[in-house]
Amino acid sequence: MNGQPRQIYEFGDFLLNKPERQLTRAGKPLALTPKAFDLLVLLVEHHGSLLTKDELMNAVWVDSFVEEANLNVNISTLRKVLGESSFIETVPKKGYRFAADVRENNAEPDIIIANYTQTRIIKEEEETTEREPQILPARQTRNNRNLIFTLSVGSLAILLVGAFFYFGQINSSSQPAPNAEALDLYQRGREAMERRNAEDMKRALHFFELAIEKDANFALAHAGLSDAYSYLNDYDVLPPEEIHRKVKAEARRALELDDTLGKSHLSLGNMLRDEWDFAESEKQIKRAIELEPDNGEAHHIYSHLLLDQERFNESLRESKLNLQFDPHSTAPRLHLGQHYLYARQYNEAITTLEETIRLAPNYSRAYLFISHAYELTNQNDKAVAAYLKSKTLNGADAQSTAKLQKAYDAGGLKKFWQEELAQTLEKAQKKYVAPYNIALLYARLSEKDKAFEYLEKAYNERSPLLVAIRCDHELDALRADTRFADLLQRVGFNKN
User: Fold this and answer.
1) Residue 255: inside a domain, yes or no?
2) Is residue 460 part of a domain?
3) In the chain, which stretches have pLDDT less than 50?
């Protein structure tokens, strides 16, 4: 590590005061843990230089043995606090670099310009209302730089030019930066996807499509569109063949535009998982992680792939990495709860999902998963309440949920699931309902022949939902049947 230690620094609208151990933004103090503050000071003091992970850990955790995950968590925290993931650049397999332009607070006012061979300045539009800072995904920030102009006006005053400048991604594929509107629409799409419900997934599609209208060569927007369509498989919105055409086209387009972008490989890996090509899916997801090791979403998707194959220990590792890289988001916590549910660790699932609901009280899928965990631990009243809450949050009308409650009150869980099956079959007469989801209801009621009938329909339409059959607890009643082993084999699982 090189560079002389300094005491007070400015970057963007932040001021880092080392002696006072204070970080402020536009004069407002920001809270940091002691280790996160020490880490930030170290990165800023050596801005522009690569610091290896060992160097950072040895300097910040003196005389202490810590795992690399501690460093990853603190880097993630800093990115959240700074609100600009381009400040801290990941150098895959090596370490981190503070990429913003930094100057000492007591230096003469001057114009600081970073010269790079490929840049594009995007001015922040003036707004009449305050807006939360946009947090750009780490995959969009490799080799980004922030350009801050500070202008000296004689010796009497300093005029700070009222604009925030964002340099587009610079990478070996020489893709130009997206325009400001496309970038904003992309981020809004990612934020909508994070909420994991049908309506927000549709909003995500809309934002990604608008971003592509603004910039047809914006690889991240194509990758986002592929991912959002893939998630629609969970919500009975469109038949799988229609969804898959779009997933495949957008994933391929993202990779064509930028094959150095981890998110492009991740979208392709996700698409291959939907196609039941588990080996090739794993190759693409591993490539995504190699390119962007601190991309939490890559660890999330990899955890799903491992869960599909009942590789529970590996899945848990990836689930926890996902949460460590994005500890302030509810989606990684939801997925960890789902992991515990599929791994048959029901008490751990309940604890994790209750925490998820505490943080996000309107998270419909959290209620769905916890309802299963409650039922499997014989907490039937809680199970029904959580299931009905999930349906309500996903738009179910009061009349249908009232009928379900009445059925449960009259005849317990069996009557409850019979009523749910009846309502689902009635809905299937009017709109698409995934055969896999109907099969799950028949399996709950131990109607095996009907369950296999609908699983076969799911197989014939190449449903991506079938990736879960090996670990899905809702199918446990069918596992002893020879038809189940045959289906596993045809989907691509070699059950040992």
Assistant:
1) no
2) yes
3) 1-5, 107-174, 495-496
CB-based burial label for 442 (10 Å; 0-12, 13-18, 19+): buried
Tens-digit pLDDT profile for residues 132-190: 333 333 333 333 333 332 323 333 232 222 322 233 333 333 455 556 678 778 878 88
Nearest 5°: phi and psi at 8?
-130, 130
How does DSSP classify residue 3? S
What are the strands, taking DSSP E only, across 289-427?
Answer: none
| Amino acid letter, 233 | N
The answer to whether residue 487 is domain-embedded is yes
Residue 307 amino acid letter: L
Contact (CB, 8 A) for 395 and 401: no
Please tell me the distance from the alpha carbon of residue 350 to that of residue 19, in angstroms, as a whole number. Answer: 45
Total structural domains within the chain: 2
With contact defined as beta carbons under 8 Å apart, do 285 and 305 qualify?
yes
Alpha-carbon distance of 275 to 492, in angstroms, equals 10
DSSP 39-106: HHHHHHHTTTS-EEHHHHHHHHSTT----HHHHHHHHHHHHHHHS-GGGEEEETTTEEEE-S--EETT
What residues make up the domain containing 20? 8-167
Residue 378 belongs to some domain of the structure: no
